[in-house]
């Protein structure tokens, strides 16, 4: 491992599915790694759970295992906390980590509401730590290449429409009431879990800019609610120039591999992958010419791209990342709020809008 690249020591909060994918990916040997990642500590609801997690997902490594999250926040050997808890806990986990002076990478959706996101980012600003929402898809090389083709080279002319879907059969009937996919108090519902990716593709394909530079579209949205959570969401983004994004999520069916279609005045692009969060290829189809296919191979799942970017930023003394800046997280959270305002999904009182919409 070259000594020219930064080293980042991670404290992992929670031992669920996403944390397992994240630590596996960070432990891969990669010739093109931009940083050296160390899983320094793991915090879980129990030490036994933490030990079992480490043994299964990063065998041969020996992180410090804690039976609480607080011990990770106060471990001086930890540089950055990775938050892999259900949505409803993100705000408090982030605030607690920031209070101990830790940098934070927090899973999507960043928080339940835009108001919560503002609270976390204000705390980060005051403490001078790095904070980022772990919207890993934005860091895929495929996304960078696609955005260059669409917006800089205009290979399909002007973008007029984008369709994107993320649907998974979550088999909700089989899950207990405490599942994070079912319990509204944990931030359940398709919108924050998977709909956020459809929204992300729409935003990235319809506008070359992000964050405070981006254009704000009008939103028209509807949701199907069951037991207090959205099992389906459809949102339409309408831009001032008339272009539209038709963006959907569903908990009872499965999106086919071709999950996104970008339509322009001079052609169409179809994006493919095993999930809307993890694209593997796209095809550019001009109206009368040969289709051109772009394939993107990767090892593991691809969480190391966001982790590398975080490490490089922190080594450079930055507090936010230019691919996923704070203003973009806030913009997306505000759109998620608006979609729920129109669609009807509410989180429990006290966790939702301070205006008392719920
Ligand atoms: N980027 C992606 O592709 C991706 C994929 C899946 C999920 N996610 C995101 O990752 C986050 C977690 O999702 P997940 O699928 O990993 O969830 P999960 O498998 O249910 O794990 C969540 C973990 O959080 C901890 N936790 C603390 N309080 C909890 C409570 N009251 N109920 C349940 N768990 C609690 C538990 O760990 P301990 O017992 O060890 O404390 C649990 O194992 C969400 O924000 C989700 O949107 C991202």
TrEMBL record:
Residues 145-270 form the GFO/IDH/MocA-like oxidoreductase domain. Pfam families: GFO_IDH_MocA, GFO_IDH_MocA_C3. InterPro entries: Gfo/Idh/MocA-like_OxRdtase_N, Gfo/Idh/MocA_domain, GFO_IDH_MocA-like_dom, NAD(P)-bd_dom_sf. Its EC number is 1.1.1.179. Keywords: Oxidoreductase. Residues 8-133 form the Gfo/Idh/MocA-like oxidoreductase N-terminal domain. Gene3D superfamilies: Dihydrodipicolinate Reductase, domain 2 (3.30.360.10), NAD(P)-binding Rossmann-like Domain (3.40.50.720). It catalyses: D-xylose + NADP(+) = D-xylono-1,5-lactone + NADPH + H(+). It comes from the Eukaryota. PANTHER family: OXIDOREDUCTASES, TRANS-1,2-DIHYDROBENZENE-1,2-DIOL DEHYDROGENASE. Belongs to the Gfo/Idh/MocA family. This is D-xylose 1-dehydrogenase (NADP(+), D-xylono-1,5-lactone-forming). It comes from Phialemonium thermophilum. The lineage of its organism: Eukaryota, Fungi, Dikarya, Ascomycota, Pezizomycotina.
């Amino acid at each position: 491992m070259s000594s020219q690249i930064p080293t980042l020591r991670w404290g992992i909060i929670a031992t669920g599915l996403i944390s397992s994918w994240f630590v596996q990916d960070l432990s891969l040997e990669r010739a093109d790694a931009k940083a050296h990642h160390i899983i320094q500590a793991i915090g879980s609801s129990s030490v036994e759970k933490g030990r079992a997690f480490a043994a299964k997902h990063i065998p041969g490594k020996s992180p410090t295992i804690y039976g609480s999250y607080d011990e990770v926040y106060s471990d001086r050997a930890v540089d950055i906390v990775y938050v892999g808890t259900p949505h409803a806990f993100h705000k408090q986990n982030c605030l607690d980590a920031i209070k101990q002076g830790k940098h934070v990478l927090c899973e999507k959706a960043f928080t339940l509401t835009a108001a919560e996101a503002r609270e976390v980012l204000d705390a980060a600003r005051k403490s001078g730590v790095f904070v980022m929402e772990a919207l890993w898809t934005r860091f895929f090389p495929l996304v960078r290449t696609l955005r260059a083709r669409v917006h800089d080279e205009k290979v399909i002319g002007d973008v007029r429409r984008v369709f994107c879907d993320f649907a998974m059969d979550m088999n909700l009937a089989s899950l207990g009431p405490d599942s994070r996919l079912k319990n509204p108090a944990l931030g359940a519902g398709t919108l924050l879990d998977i709909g956020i990716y459809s929204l992300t593709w729409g935003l990235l394909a319809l506008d070359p800019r992000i964050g405070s530079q981006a254009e704000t579209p009008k939103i028209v949205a509807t949701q199907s609610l069951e037991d207090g959570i959205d099992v389906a969401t459809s949102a339409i983004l309408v831009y001032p120039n008339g272009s539209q994004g038709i963006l959907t999520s569903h908990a009872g069916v499965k999106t086919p591999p071709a999950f996104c279609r970008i339509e322009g005045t001079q052609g169409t692009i179809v994006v493919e992958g095993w999930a809307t969060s993890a694209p593997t290829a796209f095809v550019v189809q001009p109206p009368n010419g040969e289709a051109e296919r772009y394939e993107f191979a990767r090892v593991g799942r691809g969480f190391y791209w966001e982790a590398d970017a975080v490490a490089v930023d922190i080594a450079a003394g930055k507090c936010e990342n230019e691919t996923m800046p704070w203003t973009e997280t806030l913009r997306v959270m505000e759109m998620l709020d608006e979609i729920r305002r129109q669609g009807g999904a509410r989180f429990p009182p006290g966790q939702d809008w301070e205006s008392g919409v719920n």
